[in-house]
């Protein structure tokens, strides 16, 4: 902003104006300096955040890429001492378990999120609170729960038991992120739709959820990312399987299990497989993230 | 040793009413079975077959070499191959087994090779930890379990009474190295039990402490504080290490023998062998105990440890085997082999154990279980791949003992499941 | 209804024709909420049943005793409770300002072209399995922490007495830093989304009034996104409290009360994950008890956060939303 100045004879009014302008200018300068510092701090924090995160990803890339070859994606696990082999059985397991857990947790989580966003009563408050506490439950205790609830009853470790545990881990994340996203939708959209005579369900389906879609996608992705990367619940429920298994009622392998088990082995090639699997997990989530964004954009365009 | 009662191991295929009598296992090489009496059915059949068995035994014993001068560790029973080649008869199916992470690479490779010979039977082993393996076994969710320390009486009490007795057999042998990260010291250190006890209970605080100096004359030791690295999780490795300290250092070791120890606050605790190995690697002036395979694979420097004969022995597949050879009969209640006699014995060694029900609930999976385990614990079978993974194979006497134990395992109607 | 200012708008205005479908809709939502509550109750009851033997043999005092020594039947949880709170606190002290600053930068400062890709990158980082963070911490960060960060902090802040003891790398500080790195993506991803949806009219209005960029962010954007930010912080806190594998690898796992930020310590989840595989009897039950205590800590932390926000909340929206 530039200060306006007038070439004019001394005039008390102009003089007064000049004084006010001076004070305003000083204030502006002060606020601008302050703003510059604060914005600079934000940039600095961004840098501080990027350094370790880039470090972790670079580390996974460097350690994991050498493990990648055609066999890695197409062959089942071979034991140490047998060359070759891959993690196809773990990819299948993670895909099946992740799909079941997501299919169960997303609708329940989103409807719960909608419920929370539309309710302000004591009950909703209690549920919101419960969801927040559940995000802090160590995943291993949820694994124990999966074991007690499913495995010890069916006497059978299974992909389903793992999906159950993973679904419970994903659920509160989806709920809270979904609620946050839905609450962020400007209220006038909602009001306009209601004023046109739309039913609440229609408003939710046609107005609120689409408007909240970016936030919902973020929330679901965070939940899926967290669910796919969880090790402890799987350790107690799906058992692992060196052989290819598509049937979720049977013991299955999964990528986090490969990472966890192999990274604690003494042999260099098993550890490398662990890093390869870690990289794969990251890439899968990257693909999901980009894919769902593209999908959302396409859906948005079709609607218009 | 138990006197051989005529035909030692009647193998009976009841379904076909054909009896097949095995040649007797040489009594000199058959250690005491620790797994309780045979089932009644088997014993009755054994009595009924005494005559035929004795006849066959008489014929075959002439071909059995006398073994009065058995080497330490014994020799493998002569009919080994007959049993091992029987693996092709194992029924098709899928077994699940869980437990010790220590045996996982070995089991996985052994079972893989077994599956290669016998396409019908798949064994899915999961390294969930010995304790979880035992819990799974008690709950009946696995066909067999593996543990670094055999199930104790209180563990056994939790097996449902209806399941009957439990058979526990050594499946592989391992050594525990004392590895360290000591910048500037290239000489291999010598340590004894008393000094190790002092290092790990926190009373010996620096590398140049007089006790360490006294054992390593001529080595220039730094004055830095020692950082002991120990297991945070409950572990068979900790059990074997502290068992050695308790037996060899006597009253100097006060923290007891257990899978978990109340370590002093100076000790850094990390979960799993790999965690301790990683922590030793990244921490100068630290010392810790890890399974031998981890020390070898990580190129750690590890100490020579004073054994019962007073020699300083470096851990290796040979010296661990030498330690195990000193005790030819082990059982679930008498399993410790630490600090054994013998000039070349590495004193911090121990067995890992496979655990199964004596009376299997299914003839099919039961036969698969005993056959794959028998194959795995014998030379000519699974033990042959042990060295390639830095495991130590079982002494022949223990292999024979395992077979005797597995021959007591029966199906639901009492038939012996391990056949030639 | 999506916001909170106007209660019961839909139901109040339309009766008759639309009441039933709306009722069915609300019924569906309520039914799903009941499913969630049922799952949680089932979970909590399962854990309580498992933990019960520990309480019946040990009473209640074991929870706050100082000694954990299963060999001698001592199951004190105090060191682990403190360790859990301390590591989470270190993580949050770092993550709240840095996470918020990063989210603001990503939502408003970074050039438009970069926003989407950076946003995706941040979500991606939330997917890195925690065991990877743990290994990276143990192998890469621990030596850096021991050789540079700890000596530096000791020389600058040594006078506080918080940095006594040797520089070991592993310990509370490193565990807190790993947790910070782990929760950062979660926090940034959610914060960025809620910051970005603050209505443009408000932002433009503030700018038109002559507010500086920082003033807009500070006075308009952050207050507008308060509820969502709280949600993000809560998710991050939850994750920090409950993280197991990564912490177990870098905290040193000594069952003693830490006397310094550099000391090795242990947390409730690391205690559980380290001992669960081999525990039996009372010890196993005590581990479930540790899980219960962690639930209680989670309840306490969440309640405190809520109370704090409620007491400082200005507008009705924020206060109702956190009720």
Q: Supply Rg of chain C.
A: 23 Å
* Mean pLDDT reading of chain C: 81
Please trace the helix and strand order of chain A, writing H or E for each element: HHHHHHHHHHH
Radius of gyration of chain A: 27 Å
Q: What strand order characterises the main sheet of chain C?
A: 1-2
What is the approximate shape of chain C? Answer: globular
Encode the helix/strand succession of chain C as letters. Answer: HHEEHHHHHHHHHHH
Amino- and carboxy-terminal Cα gap of chain C: 16 Å
The number of helical runs of chain C is: 13
Task: Give me the CATH fold name of the largest domain in chain A.
Answer: MetI-like fold
Outline type of chain A:
extended
Oligomer: heterotrimer
Write a structural description.
Chain A contains 11 helices and no strands. By secondary structure, chain A is an all-alpha fold. Chain A has 2 domains: 2-66; 70-303, MetI-like (MetI-like fold). In chain A, helix 1 packs across helix 11 (268-303), helix 3 packs parallel to helix 6 (159-183) and helix 3 (88-118) packs across helix 10. The relative contact order of chain A is 0.13. The mean pLDDT of chain A is 85. By secondary structure, chain B is an alpha/beta fold. Chain B is 32% helix and 17% strand. In chain B, strands 3, 4, 5, 6, 8, 9, 10, 11 and 14 form a 9-stranded mixed β-sheet that branches. Chain C has 323 residues and is mainly alpha-helical. The longest helix of chain C is centred in the N-terminal third of the chain and has 40 residues, at 19-58. In chain C, helix 9 (226-242) packs antiparallel against helix 12. Chain C has one domain (58-322): Orthogonal Bundle (MetI-like fold), CATH 1.10.3720.10. Chain C starts with 8 loop residues before the first helix and ends with a helix. Chain C is built from 13 helices and 2 strands, in the order H-H-E-E-H-H-H-H-H-H-H-H-H-H-H. The interface between A and C is large, with 108 and 113 residues.
